[in-house]
Design brief:
The chain is α+β, with helices and mostly antiparallel strands and 205 residues long. The protein is built from four helices and eight strands.
């Protein structure tokens, strides 16, 4: 009898150990799956709820989403922005809107042009006059030096942003910014979520 009880206890302890080991092995996998679930807004959420959720994201918090961009390419002639992760495109946005002079590199304040070259996303403004704004690190040292030769200011505050806050729906027509890059509100909400501060951005003619 004692042998039967001892055998039963041994089998019970082994079963418990196996369950604990299985739980420990499943932990990281479950956490990873949970993190990727945050990459989308809840189904049926209102635009206001989506906007508030996007604005709540601070620097460094993007890691809890499924896909994170590490490089952006803007093709001005194609009016397209592509977000890359590890060299692979993960998002593409078409129909970009620029300033009144969309061609050519920005040189001076007020020229209504969008910069060309490699910069970084260096700051974000959730309280922008437009629907969320990601700032491009223009001007760099070369931009400032060039403008200085002509006794001019290179300008600045170039952003990727959404539509004006006063616009009830849809998009403004044509090119309407002061040299910034405008997306739809839904597009900038997504870009805001997947682009951390410090992400390089290459703007091509």
């Amino acid at each position: 009898m004692f042998r039967c009880v001892a055998l039963a206890l041994t089998l019970l302890l082994a079963a418990c150990a196996g369950q604990n080991a299985g739980t420990q092995n499943a932990g990281p996998q479950s956490a990873g799956q949970g993190a990727s679930d945050h990459g989308a807004y809840p189904p049926g959420s209102s635009p206001t709820a989506r906007r508030n959720a996007a604005r709540s994201i601070q620097r460094g918090d993007q890691s809890r989403f499924g896909r994170i961009a590490d490089y952006l390419v803007v093709d001005k002639s194609e009016r397209m922005l592509v977000a890359y992760e590890d060299g692979k495109p993960i998002r593409a946005y078409r129909g970009l809107q620029f300033g009144d002079a969309p061609s050519g590199h920005k040189r001076f304040q007020g020229d209504e042009r969008t910069p060309e070259g490699v910069y970084r996303i260096d700051w974000r403004n959730p309280q922008s006059s437009y629907h969320l704004s990601l700032r491009i690190s223009y001007p760099n040292a070369n931009d400032r030096a060039f403008a200085s030769e002509y006794g001019r200011s290179p300008g600045g505050d170039i952003f990727i942003h959404g539509q004006p806050n006063g616009l009830r729906s849809g998009r403004m027509r044509g090119d309407w910014t002061d040299g910034c890059i405008a997306l739809s509100n839904e597009e900038i909400e997504e870009l805001w979520r997947i682009v951390p501060d410090g992400t390089p951005i290459e703007i091509r003619p």
